[in-house]
Fold these 2 entries.
Entry 1:
Amino acid sequence: MTFETAVTGAAAGVSLPPDPRALESVVADALAFARTAGATGAEVGLSVDAGLSVSVRLGEVESLEYQRDRGLGITVYVGQRKGTASTGDLSRAAVEETVRKAVSIASFTAADPYAGLADAADMAREIPDLDLAHPWPVSAEEAVELARRCEAAALAVDPRLTNSEGGSVSTHAGLRVYGNSHGFLASYPGTHHSVSCAVLAQDGEDMQRDYWYTTARDWRALEDIEAVGRRAGERTVRRLGARRLATCKAPVLFVPELARGLVGHFLGAIRGGAQYRESSFLLGASGQSVFPSFVQLAERPHLRGALGSAPFDAEGVATRDREWVVDGVLQGYVLDSYAARRLGLKTTGNAGGTHNLQVAAGTDTLSELLRRMHRGLMVTELMGHGVNAVTGDYSRGAAGYWVEGGELAYPVHEITIAGNLRDLYRRVVAVGADVDVRASLHTGSWLLEEMTIAGE
């Protein structure tokens, strides 16, 4: 696609489908045909998405993409045999052929006593307006200019900022429709917008990279474009002069965007699939004390305008507020209907994932956490995937800052931090007040009592 073609195609920005009812009727027709084709149960998910993404490097357009996707997936049950098929063609003939393929596939699969739709009693009865859709009327030309401004602000921070990985702007809008043979049929729209920048600094032989970004459902809630660039530039310059550390054990502070990963590993361990497969380092941990007593973790799926909000899950089950960790004690497992049946439990409305998880914030700012740590490592970047979901062993490449006397002393790189997650969770000393909401998991910084830091 040429630049001129993309500008013309996205001149008015990315918009939502004009008539959700037309898409809902496609789902209803697919469900009706599934019944006539012999399915004893069926569920259909349909999505329509449009997006515009641009990236600029050193002032020049590096990529410009305008995307429009749509797809329908159907799962049918013939007794307890399951078949799944999908299509990007929403014409009646194509949908009917997709349904026939799913029914045919079901005839070849083995019966599974746990297979089937979520219970009808669990379906969402009301679909609240969660304020999730705010299309951004930005043209391709305007998006390119915003990306240029973001990158220029970053490079202007310091003359040692000599190169760039680029400034980027993206906007996406879509509609999700779900229906099943319980008679459930509903849809909701959503948007997602972001601006990011990554730059490189060089001082002699030393070269460092860092970034910053902002993201929101409502484009008016994005951080100031130039402020994003300046933050990226300042973070990069601050990393110049990075050193390696001698191997040691010390307290470690994870900044919020990385602390989110620690919570993510916890969620993976308490998902129903990991539990019934017996592949979790928190196997059978429901009711046990996993964190210190001050740690609270809640799910709030109906926060207006939040990135993780949803009125129902991927099976049509109503999403609800839920407490996952109370006073450090695990309250249960993250379940869809299949995992729930395998474990003899009830679905928690988490087919497709969790929705707006919130770790209760403490009272300490980042500066106060550093003073509380006094001496140790503040981690700002992680590399690699050295996490064993079965044993909980954790080992990641890292970079950040060494802390002395409660202040940042110097940047560090080329180190590895290690421990066992079950032990690390018990060694959480504090959760910060600096909560990051740029994802569906909201948390502040995490201060851990001690980790092994491998360096020179």
Note: Residues 242-260+361-454 form one domain.
Entry 2:
Amino acid sequence: MGHDKLRKFAENETFSCLLQPSAQELLADGYFHLRDHAVKGHWSSFFSSLQFGSSPLKTSGSAGPLPSDDGPLPLTMPRVGPPEKHAFPGYPRVARFSGGTAETAALPEKNLVLELGCGKGEYTIALAERDPERNYIGVDIKGARLWKGAKYATEHALPNVAFLRTRVEFITAFFAPGEVSEVWLTFSDPQYRSENSRLSSPLFLERYRSFLRPGGIVHLKTDSRFLHEYTLAVCRANGLRILAATTDLYGMSAPAAIPDEVREVQTFYEKLFLEQGYPITYLSFVIDHEGPYVSPRDPEEFDAKAWRAAEGPRLLFGHDSAETRRQKLHAAED
């Protein structure tokens, strides 16, 4: 591990806006019975603490890395027990959660907006700086990436920006029913081979529904036509209300009703893809839905093979992407 990464991990421990929970604690009862983190239902108190330069949930110690992670996570965090034990002063009691329901929950004073897979956090920060009336949380597992966003938020004393270092699969352990108003998916991995790994799959929509308010919105901004068309098919298969959809966000045919921040805020990768001539797609939808979500039928409702082929060769930093290399190998075999 590079010396610079170790320096960033050490500095991450000093950022009050960065929450780094222990995966061991979350998984103490097994993958399918995640323990709720103490911040669940209490993000307003967490953000209030940022104004004073400290967090009520800072952790200490170190532990081995999670699989595919890039550095150590803290070992200890407040253990989840009876609700009263972890209630923050001045906030209502939060009941234990089971299956996304609770008898009582403290709703935040400001709407919470999440960016999942936020990388270095530039999109989260840009949205927060444009809209100080809402609180923004960037979620990613890579500590060296989050360091940049957390450092910027700390140095600029941004009171409405926080970062959460965890796997997106664990997201339900951190947010109570009705606590989040919007979810942003910005340039997520299309996950061509694993539907359940796609952040807009029925599995993940079930997770988002457990904490999104009624009418909560999911935004998908991506250069992947495959992921865009798949998500559209998921919306149609489940009767979800589509607010806006375009296959060329910066083209003449893009709907004028798309919010300004969708075009005006760009990630590093978005700028890179635009420079290479790739169109950027955008889709927003409401995930209110009765009953379980279903997958679109393949190929009748979504032809995965055809859309995967339609992606074409991709270059990233002047080199073939991993998916492009696989496509070339399959083409050579044929």
Note: DSSP finds twelve helices and ten strands in the chain.
